[in-house]
């Protein structure tokens, strides 16, 4: 049992860094029994059960909550600056909330690499952010706070509509590119003494544009969105952005996660169709779950799209230690 859990844990980390997921070779006995029962199930009965499950009205509860939090967080910067009320000063890369310094982890790393020494003030501001995202899950930042993520989500809807009309086709790339880009940007900061990534980060560009007004840098953001609409859906977030990888590493041990329950799942795949990072849901593919209950890996953005979509409730949010699932 412990060996299966550790094997699953390290596999999920490897997948986050870009390794392609494979069918597991080590599965718990209880999961093997469920897999066998599913293989023996009557297909007509299963199809009828799927249709009945889909009769429930679909609601976007978690998506609506996420959009509300994301818009509110970014608007708070705008309102604080516009009315000079000093509640949340700065931008997403570096800010101060009612006196507490908050520094984006990836930005702080870039600055310290560029200056080639540890800056105490940055460490203090970073620790507050790190502890928070360690608790709620590192990549939660991507889907619940990052303004580019929201625009990319809307661009993805346009891409999917155009793809359904045969106007575009989706070009996939290796997810390991994101790891290589992380190394390249870190090396660039170290070698040039300049935070190269911050100059092209759509997260920082959009945050500053919302607060201080638009600039020419928005043309780069527009180019990224056009690329994602016409060529490769969510290309920046999936294959390039080092911020997601940084927060994913921070959130490896987060108690907040989405968990998958094998028993009630019909494996119809609707959750993977709506997932922003579908590789984290490879465990829902028939025969892939290593246990009857599996927490999704650290690359999960906790967006809640799969939870909203799952007709059987096989995917749910969970807080480790406060749930009886595990």
Describe, in plain words, how this protein is organized in 3D.
This protein is mainly alpha-helical and 326 residues long. The chain folds into 2 domains: 2-16 and 23-56 and 255-319, no CATH class; 62-249, no CATH class. The protein has a 3-stranded antiparallel sheet. It has a 3-stranded antiparallel sheet with strand order 5-4-6, with no helix packed on it. 55% of the residues lie in helices and 8% in strands.
Short description:
Helix content is 55%, strand content 8%. It has 326 residues and is mainly alpha-helical.
- Low-pLDDT sequence parts: none
Strand neighbour order, sheet with most strands: 1-2-3
| Tally of domains | 2
Q: N-to-C SSE series?
A: HHHHEEEHHHHHHHHHHEHEHE
Question: Quick one: biggest sheet?
Answer: 3 strands, antiparallel
Q: How many angstroms does the end-to-end distance come to?
A: 12 Å
Number of helices: 16
Give the fraction of residues assigned to helices: 55-70%
Question: Compute the gyration radius: what is it?
Answer: 21 Å
Global shape: globular
By helix and strand content, what is the structural category?
mainly alpha
How are the secondary structure elements laid out?
Elements: H1 2-16, H2 29-40, H3 43-53, H4 61-82, E1 88-91, E2 94-97, E3 100-103, H5 105-115, H6 120-136, H7 140-144, H8 147-164, H9 177-192, H10 196-200, H11 202-212, H12 218-230, H13 235-239, H14 242-250, E4 256-261, H15 270-274, E5 293-295, H16 305-309, E6 315-319
Antiparallel strand pairs: 1-2, 2-3, 4-5, 4-6
Helix pairs in contact: 4-11, 5-9, 8-12, 9-14
């Amino acid at each position: 049992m412990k060996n299966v859990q550790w094997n699953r844990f390290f596999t999920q980390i490897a997948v986050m860094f870009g390794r392609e997921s494979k069918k597991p070779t080590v599965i718990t006995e209880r999961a093997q029994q469920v897999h066998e029962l599913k293989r023996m199930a009557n297909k007509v009965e299963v199809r009828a059960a799927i249709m009945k499950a889909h009769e429930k009205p679909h609601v976007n509860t978690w998506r609506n909550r996420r959009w509300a939090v994301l818009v509110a967080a970014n608007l708070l910067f705008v309102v604080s600056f516009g009315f000079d009320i000093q509640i949340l000063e700065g931008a997403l890369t570096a800010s101060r909330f009612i006196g507490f310094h908050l520094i984006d982890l990836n930005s702080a790393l870039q600055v310290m690499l560029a200056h080639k020494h540890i800056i105490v003030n940055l460490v203090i501001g970073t620790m507050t952010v790190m502890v928070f995202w360690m608790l709620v899950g590192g990549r939660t930042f991507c889907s619940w706070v990052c303004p580019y993520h929201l625009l990319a989500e809307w661009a993805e809807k346009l891409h999917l509509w155009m793809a359904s009309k045969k106007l575009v086709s989706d070009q996939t790339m290796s997810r390991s590119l994101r790891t290589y880009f992380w190394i390249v940007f870190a090396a660039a900061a170290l070698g040039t003494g300049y935070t190269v990534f911050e100059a092209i980060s759509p997260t920082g560009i959009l945050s500053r544009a919302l607060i201080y007004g638009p600039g020419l840098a928005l043309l780069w953001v527009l180019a990224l969105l056009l690329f994602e609409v016409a060529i490769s859906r969510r290309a920046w977030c999936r294959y390039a952005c080092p911020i997601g990888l940084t927060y994913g590493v921070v959130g490896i041990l987060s108690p907040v996660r989405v968990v998958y329950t094998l028993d009630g799942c019909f494996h119809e795949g609707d959750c993977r169709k709506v997932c922003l990072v579908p590789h984290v849901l490879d465990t829902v593919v028939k025969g892939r779950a290593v246990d009857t209950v599996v927490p999704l890996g650290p690359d999960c953005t906790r967006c809640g799209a799969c939870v909203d979509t799952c007709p059987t409730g096989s995917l749910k949010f969970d807080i480790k230690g406060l749930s009886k699932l595990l």
